[in-house]
Amino acid sequence: MFVPAHPRRADVTDADGRPARVSFIAYELFAHPTAGTGAVAFAFTTRERLLAALGEAQPWVATSIGPLAEAVAAHDGTVLLDPRVAPGPYNWRPDDLAAYAREMR
Predict the structure, then answer these.
(1) What is the SS3 assignment for 89?
(2) What is the reported pTM?
C-alpha cells in the first residue's frame, strides 16, 4: 500500500537524562464524509493512484495494510482503500515539500 505520510522528529530525554532526537513516520489522516467523526488514513494500491489523487508533491510511504489499519484503529480511525478525493488544491505543493525538506535537515 502507498500511504500519505512524512518523516517527523521529536526532541526527547533518554533514560540517562540526555537530550535525544527520535525520528518516526507520521501517517497523514483526513476527514472523510463516510467516516463519521473518526480520522481516516488513505491507502492506495499503486503509487500512481496516490499521486493522481493527492498530487506529485505528496510525501508517502509504502506499508502493509495490516499494521496501518491497527495503528489507525487504535485511535478510533479507519483506512479507506483507493479513496475518491474531491478535486481542489493539494495539501502538498512542490514549494511546500522543498521547505519541509530544508526544515528536516
Answers:
(1) coil
(2) 0.82
